[in-house]
Automatic annotation (TrEMBL), chain B:
It is found in: Cytoplasm. Its EC number is 6.1.1.20. It comes from the Archaea. It comes from Marine Group I thaumarchaeote. This is phenylalanine--tRNA ligase. Keywords: Aminoacyl-tRNA synthetase, ATP-binding, Cytoplasm, Ligase, Magnesium, Metal-binding, Nucleotide-binding, Protein biosynthesis. PROSITE patterns: B5 (PS51483).
Amino acid sequence: MLSQVFHDIEKKIIHSLQPDQILTISEIEKKTGLQSDQVRRGIEWLKLKNFAHVKESTDIHYHFGEKGHEAIGNGLPERRLVNEIEKGNTTFDKLKPILGLDFNAAIAYAKKNNWISITKNEKSTELSLNKDHQESLEEKFLLSHKTLEKNKTNEIKVSEDSLFAIVSLKKRPDFIVDSSLIIKKISLTVEGKKINLGDLSHSSGAIDVESKVPEVFVARTHPLKDTIDEIREIFVTLGFSEINGNMTQSSFWNFDALFTPQDHPARELQDTFYLDGISAKKIATPEQIRKVSESHKKNWRYYWDINEARKMVLRTHTTCVTIKHLAENKLDEARIFSLGRVFRNEKVSYKHLVEFHQIEGVVVGKDANLRNLMGIQKEFYKRIGITKIKFWPTFFPYTEPSLQTMVYNERLGKWVELFGMGIFRPEVTKPLGITKPVLAWGGGIERIAMLKYGLDDVREFYNNNLSWLRSARKCQ
Amino acid sequence: MPVVELSYMRLQKLVGKVTKKQISDSLPFLGLDIESENKDLIRIEYSPNRPDYSTDFGIALGLQGLLRIKTGSIKLNIKKSKKYAISVKSEVSKVRPFVTGIVAKNGKIDDKTIKQFMTLQEDLHFGIGRKRKKLSIGIHDLDKITFPLVYKTTNRNFKFIPLNSKKELSISEILKNTDVGKDYSSILENSSQVPLILDAKQNTVSFPPIINAALTSVTTKTKNLFVEVTGINKEDAEDMLSVVATILQSAGFTLESVQISGAKNSSPKLEQKKMSVSPFLINQTLGLNLNNSKIISSLKKSRLDASTKGKNIICTIPAYRFDIFGPMDLVEEVALGYGIQNLEPTLSPSQTLGQKHPSSISLQSLSSIMTGLGYMEALNSSLTSKRILYDNTKRDSSKILSVLDSKSLEHTILRDSLLPGLIDNLAKNIHESYPQKLFEIGTIFNKTSSVTEETHLCAVSSHKDANFSEIKSVLQSVIQSIFGKTCETKTSTHPTFEKGHVANITVNGKIIGIIGEISKPTKDNFKLRESIVSFEVKLPS
């Protein structure tokens, strides 16, 4: 639909044409007082909106030349020839001086009209009149203009005869000049006739609501934050309460409390970010430190160094927050989750970031078992829209048994690893006084967000590229 | 996770009657991820707690169990022999106190077998050997060695022909000039004396934990092997030896014992251990209701032995399964033998009410307030570079907080402000249409005697008419919505902002942040042209 709002020009034209006028452009000019280019523009607009028709009619404009006027006064050369023959002037020699320059034309047209016959003998060329030399269509047409003023543009309603006459006369030099055979006639369409110019919606205060406008962009929460919020919401509806903690943690809570030996390769500089020159003063209660160190010494058989445990790191998982919370609160029955940034000292690539978000959930309860853990996973994945999953065994230093979820990535056409899970080892829980089984699982959120937003490069989430942020769909 | 490369054909030969598909279907249920496949070759990721899976011999043992071709534990048949002995000198106790070993005879060694032994050795060195610091291993051609051996120390001028060399090199030269010497010399740096194994003819067998002698190198012509493990702990050394012994026996060798004595060393026993586990714990942990015979058959499929004793199940665990610490590890072995694919997930009803952390709720509403004010949310890394955080913004870097040895140059220090990251975001979006308005809510880090974390809100607005009043209007409504209070802006200075166009933000007379127009020099450093106004505030914790 094009605009229903009319420009003043349009309104004037409509007014001139209502209710049933058929007018030429010049007539509209006269009636509206508009310039002809204004009229032409207005008509184009109305035509586009289907309010006006433009019909090309075969009405004629014409304008007589000098010869034309002469013929109106004296008759056409062929008629003058006939009159001379009737007077007795029948030879070329006699007629030539009388007709002068018109002689050739007179002979040619009289012959064409089959008014005369020509006979040649030794002495001269003799003309004689045929039986029929009545008034021709051209003559009739000219005679109808007997009373015409000179140099006037004429318009007439066309008859076929006069059309023939004009076409024929046009072939003769200087009889008719400036003729235009086609003329535009403007009228309103059915819709155009219905327009009520008194209607307010067409008043000049209205605007063109359908025209293009400058672009503005939504301000929105970050797409990754939306996924994080969605996951938080799912955990809450599954009965989990959120806990949080610092990103900077002592090695004690990040590693030692989770049964990762101090000489384990994962604790080395190339995998973990250690804070330069900063170590924790108070890391845990003396009892916690004693029992954790005993568990290490007994099971891993090495010299446990408290200074290693004091080293501050950027947490490599949120499990440090969870285990600390469990150790401090000694819960018998609980569902808790934590969500936040974790860090790995890796080379940045399309699939690895040094810093990403992790979700982690735990269930504490005397009857908590591995099948429950798998059940919660299945339910969680279902709620984020992933239904094709399976479980494989795997290894984590602080859980036993340990599983990983494999989810089917339709786009890549293969199974990809998503969350890891397991039951906290007794070597982890016992020293910290946690007596009930603890089911734990977790994984990276960016991976899920990549599936949701169809991204192949995880770095996109942190590029803050406005063209992406402004165009990424809000509800996925 | 470590990776091992295997051949299906070899695996099929080792496992017994089995198809390629049965193998590839079963591997994940042993905890082995297929990383890639190329015709006959497969690359497999295995867990660092299972060094026996670093060879196809070990994986074949696992597959046999899972596919019920052979179940139950692998017993080591070690022929007692008096021919082979190592005596240990007390001087090694300060350097690398323990040695142990075994002899393996009458095996066939082809190129592929040598390759598997090499990956095994590499894995043992890296994993339980802790990069050779804790333990190291040497595999030698038995027939080039004259027993008895002596494990002693020597000084750094001692010379022998090491592996991959044609001439004699001194210990110092080996440590300084060879790749392996350079990689591991730090293990020995605290001592002028270094460990050495010599044979009865005074030929060097090994210079642990660095390199073997060229003399004893193993080739495809070798039939009989001598394996030695040295380290700083006797139990660990015997654990490592048990893995090698198990693999060599599986590879077709017959084992003979080596007698070890002196300086608290003794001959390795490599015995199976017994561990009791209650069926109740198993069923409770797995959420199953298995009878004892099903539990026993599952354990046997995991290549362990088990029998009922009273209410409990007594499990017999071969020495190489030192990853089994206690009953919970046996629960996992039952689960693997039973088959993870046979465990049906169940959803136990929630008996708890979930809730968000109060700070999540307030930060979520702050985000929606900022978007309501027309600001787009950005997310930047906590780890950033000195260039962005301090150099370009001219901020005070005296409390710079670095991480050690970052692999990424763009991520070497922790941010103590959100603003530099957002200005950098504007710099990366100069080709996008203006106005550009961004905000970020995030954690910043302050270096104190330790480190403290705060949550900040920062907003930037950039367009040609951006000015102080505009951003102050935004600030006022934000502060009103966070604190329910009005804020004041007090004339101040800040290196990132334009002089005379910057103020401290105070609420109740307390400074909580900064607001102003970004200075021309800062904009120039980021190659930005349009005006930028900004504020950053600390949020209540």
